[in-house]
Amino acid sequence: MTVLVTGAAGFIGYHLADRLLARGERVFGLDNVNDYYSVKLKRDRIGELRARHGDAFRFIEADFADAAALRDATMGEEFDRIAHLGAQAGVRYSIENPHAYVQSNLVGHLNLLELARHRGSAHLVYASSSSVYGGNDTLPFRVEDRVDHPLSLYAATKKADELMSETYAHLYRLPQTGLRFFTVYGPWGRPDMAMWLFTKAILEGRPIEVFGEGDMRRDFTFIDDIVSGIVACLDNPPPDDGQEKAGGSKGPHRLYNIGNNRSEELTRMIGLIEQACGRPAVRNLMPMQPGDVRDTYADISAISRDLGFRPTTSIDVGVPRFVDWYRAYHGV
Description:
Blueprint: E1 2-6, H1 11-22, E2 26-31, H2 39-53, E3 57-61, H3 67-74, E4 81-84, H4 93-96, H5 98-119, E5 123-129, H6 153-172, E6 176-181, E7 184-185, H7 194-203, E8 208-210, E9 217-218, E10 221-222, H8 223-234, E11 253-258, E12 264-265, H9 266-277, E13 283-285, H10 301-307, H11 315-330
Parallel strand pairs: 1-2, 1-4, 2-3, 4-5, 5-6, 6-11, 7-10, 8-13
Antiparallel strand pairs: 9-12
């Protein structure tokens, strides 16, 4: 069995491909390897997959937001399921470069829907985001909550993806699962995320910028737990039985939160990084940034009920594992 993984050079895509390959599946990876963050890091991830899994991993560098390029890249390739994890990421960057989000997250998502429809794919699992909860102030966030007040264009594109997927589930009975990820971290993570930025600054002896005056909480979710949830979803497409699914659809379309089901203070996460680095941070307290939310907290009851998902990694374990990887990768 072969799975198409978009965003295979990305953080979550790399780890998902590695897990699928380790259990004996073949993976066809697709990524445009753009320069939003370190191209070297992305190529190193692909190199790791090739070194570990050989010919079971096939990779093509192409932009899925370009319909012709996607058609050419997938022509002649056989795959039964799709994990669409590629996207233009980042809440803050969406304020600076909105067109990149429309192209990658809206046009790109439509292209994958069309690909899945015409291929008769058994299941399309796609990345949404906890950002869709936007201005909601009732915690924890539940998939049953209305999500009509996004605080960033990034969040708006992810909500739009969910709506497009619902349409395709209704019109074409395409089985789909949308996953609202909550602050994913771990080895091979993204350099634009707080955990990487804080670790880098602390090890280099520079101050860290702590937004929200330090009064923020996040549902930090370790990458291994995230991948376990994605794999469980890939293995269990929603039935087309007319029954209401998680997220409210009566078509073959589910929406799930994937988080750690704990809302941790940002300052506690920083303390764990300091401990792992063996030195204190100099903290510059900054105001909230446009597009940010103060607190996130995932209600994971739907995915736990349907698929038995149970996160197992606390930040006390996960943060040191990230710092250890960071130091090894950079030789510091």
